[in-house]
Amino acid sequence: MLVPPHMIEEQSKIIYQINKYYVERVQTRMSIIDKTIREICQIVQDILREVEVQEPRFISSLSECNGRYEGIDVVSPNEFEIVLYLNQMGVFNFVDDGTLPGCAVLKLSDGRKRSMSLWVEFITASGYLSARKIRSRFQTLVAQACDKCEYRDLVKMVADTSDVKLRIRERYVVQITPAFKCSGIWPRSASHWPIMNIPWPHPNLVAEVKMEGFDLLSKESVIFQGKNANMEGDSWILSFNEAENRLLQGAYRKRCLSILKTLRDRHLDLPGNPITAYHLKTLLLYECEKHPREMEWDENCLGDRINGIFLQLISCLQCRRCPHYFLPSLDLFKGKSPTSLENASKHVWRLSREMLTSTRALEKL
């Protein structure tokens, strides 16, 4: 098909602007975050070493590989989450019966004695491994380690939460979350995925993702609002972070996410935090289903994909619902105020309108 010269020229301008934005804004953001991660991981590793001395069951899984730290998730440029993988889940059955969307429990296997578990004192009378009890013990150990470590003048525990959160240099918040890695199994609540008759992702990638599995996290969540205390204490939160990252490999998908995160930090960091990087990652995965071909994620299409995701975001904000990619019954806007979502939709619309009507919009963004 012959493309008119003026359209080729217009497309070239958009590609130039996106590449310029990536170099000047996105890579700058990434290098600042990398520097921050190196700084905070040095401090956290010192604390976790002290925790391990006191309690060998809590072994740090934070590791450096080729100059990058694995096991840390960037929530925002000043907020991070480190997942601490625990050992010996084997004597428990994973129970995912849909009672609480986004959650599951670990129940002592039939015929197994409590004494066979490494986590014996955290097993409830009903035979469930309590996420809250493990977190409470870990919180106590981290608090003691903070008092002993060489960085004690730079670190404070965040109060008023059962999560293990550190405030470092009064600038950064780091949450350390105890977790179990569940490889080689796939939760029943996500069994509908992938949706039939959609060509993305390829069956080989689906097999990889399901083999990678998911994590069970011990942390507070809005999922538990209005639920009874026992249910909250025993429940572990399902996390598909690694699976999601695996799906976004290839073509310009990860670059697209980096640009979205940068735009979010610069223009959509709003009161009440209605739009997070995770919302954008989720909508990017839905966009991958809408545009399944690799050629739809090359450099020429990046502008269209970004605009498409922002239009999806406006729709979700106006409907006040953003379904989790793997667990669509779980609403990622739960706990957000209607006012903050309405306000956010106006901000996203202004940003989208600017990007749709001007090829040079990114120069000012």
Automatic annotation (TrEMBL):
InterPro entries: Mab-21-like_nuc_Trfase, Mab-21_HhH/H2TH-like, MAB21L/cGLR. Transmembrane segments: none annotated. It holds the Pfam family Mab-21. Residues 68-250 form the Mab-21-like nucleotidyltransferase domain. Residues 253-350 form the Mab-21-like HhH/H2TH-like domain. Belongs to the mab-21 family. This is Protein mab-21. It comes from Chironomus riparius.
